[in-house]
Design goal:
The chain has 283 residues and is an alpha/beta fold. It is built from nine helices and 16 strands. It has helices at residues 22-27, 69-76, 111-123, 143-149, 169-176, 191-201, 237-240, 251-258, 262-282; strands spanning 2-11, 14-20, 33-37, 45-54, 59-65, 82-83, 85-90, 101-107, 127-134, 152-157, 164-165, 184-188, 208-211, 227-230, 233-236, 243-245. A seven-stranded antiparallel β-sheet has the order 6-1-2-5-4-3-7, sandwiched between helices. It has a seven-stranded mixed β-sheet with strand order 11-10-9-8-12-13-16, sandwiched between helices. A two-stranded antiparallel sheet has the order 14-15. Strand 4 (45-54) and strand 5 form a beta hairpin. The longest helix has 21 residues, at 262-282. It starts with a strand and ends with a helix.
Length: 283
C-alpha cells in the first residue's frame, strides 16, 4: 500500500496528491503513468499520469479530475490514508532532446501531464513556449509552475475571464506562422483539443506529439481496451504510448470508443455529487 502524504484541491473537481512510492519515483520519466486501484479485490483500475516526482522524498505527485466513482472515492481519501495498489511507471517515456523551440499546449487537466515533459524539454536546452487553456479562470491549474519553465507563456480561456479569449489553437497557429517556426509541438488535453492542435500544426510541417488517455484496464497491453488507430495501424496506448504522432492518430475513432461508457460515467458522477450533498445537508 502507498500512503497519501499531501492532498490539495486545485479547483472545483481537480485534486493533487503526493503519494509515497519510492521505487516508482526513482524509475519514473516524463510522459509515464501509473495504474491506481483503491479496492484490491474488485476495484476499478484507472490510469493517472505522474505529474511530478521527488526521489529524495520517495514521492510521486498525482493530479486528477473527479469524473466517475473511482476518482470521487480517491478524492475522498486524506493524508494518512493509503492507496491499495499502485502499479508503475508504465508507458513509454517522452523522447526528450534539444530540438530548438518547443511549443507545449495544455488544455484543462492536460496541463498536469504536460508539466514534467515541459520541464524535461527545458532542461535539455530548448526554448519553451507554453500555451495553457481552460473554460474559465477557476479551472486553470499550475500556472505558477508552468510560468517558471516558459520563456513565453500564453493563457487562454473560453469565456475571456483570464488571459486571451480564444481557443488554444489560435495562438498555436500564430506561433507556427513565425519565422522561424517551432521545431516541435506537444499537445495534451481533451481529445477534441488535441485533434485540432494537430490539424493546426500539420500545414506548417511542425512535428506534433500528443498524449492519449484512453479506456484502460490492465496497463500491460493484454486487455486491448486502450487500442487506437495510428497511421492506419492498431496501437495500444498503455505499451506503445501514451504518446503518438498527432498527425497520424485517428481521433474520431478514439473519441467514439471513449464515449462507449459516457452515460454510465455521467450517472456515477451525478450520484457521487448527490451523495455529497446529502452528507453536507445532514451536517
Amino acid at each position: 500500500m502507498n500512503k497519501i502524504l499531501e492532498k490539495k484541491q486545485l479547483s472545483n473537481e481537480v485534486f493533487r496528491m503526493k503519494v509515497h512510492a519510492p521505487l516508482i519515483a526513482e524509475e519514473r520519466k516524463p510522459g509515464q503513468f501509473v495504474i491506481v486501484q483503491l479496492d484490491s479485490d474488485f476495484g476499478e483500475r484507472i490510469p493517472l499520469t505522474i505529474a511530478d516526482a521527488n526521489t529524495a522524498e520517495g514521492t510521486i505527485t498525482l493530479i486528477f479530475q473527479t469524473v466517475g466513482k473511482t476518482t470521487h472515492n480517491l478524492a475522498d481519501l486524506n493524508p494518512g490514508d493509503a492507496i491499495q495498489n499502485l502499479l508503475g511507471p508504465l508507458g513509454r517515456p517522452t523522447h526528450i532532446e534539444k530540438f530548438g523551440t518547443v511549443v507545449c499546449v495544455g488544455g484543462g487537466i492536460g496541463v498536469a501531464p504536460l508539466h514534467p515533459i515541459a520541464e524535461g524539454m527545458k532542461k535539455a536546452g530548448n526554448k519553451m513556449i507554453i500555451i495553457m487553456g481552460a473554460r474559465n479562470k477557476e479551472l486553470l491549474i499550475m500556472e505558477d509552475l508552468m510560468g517558471k519553465i516558459a520563456d513565453e507563456l500564453i493563457i487562454c480561456t473560453d469565456d475571456g475571464s483570464y488571459g486571451r479569449k480564444c481557443l488554444v489553437t489560435e495562438p498555436l497557429k500564430e506561433i507556427c506562422e513565425r519565422v522561424p517556426k517551432p521545431d516541435m509541438a506537444v499537445a495534451i488535453g481533451p481529445p477534441i483539443m488535441m485533434k485540432f492542435c494537430a490539424q493546426t500544426t500539420k500545414p506548417y510541417n511542425v512535428p506534433t506529439v500528443v498524449s492519449l488517455n484512453t479506456i484502460m484496464i490492465d496497463g500491460t497491453g493484454m486487455c486491448g481496451g486502450c487500442r487506437v488507430t495510428v497511421g492506419g495501424k492498431t496501437k495500444f496506448v498503455c505499451v506503445d504510448g501514451p504518446e503518438f504522432d498527432g498527425h497520424q492518430v485517428d481521433f474520431d475513432n478514439m473519441m467514439k470508443r471513449l464515449g462507449a461508457y459516457k452515460n454510465l460515467e455521467d450517472k456515477a458522477h451525478e450520484k457521487c455529487h448527490l451523495e455529497e450533498s446529502m452528507v453536507k445537508a445532514k451536517k
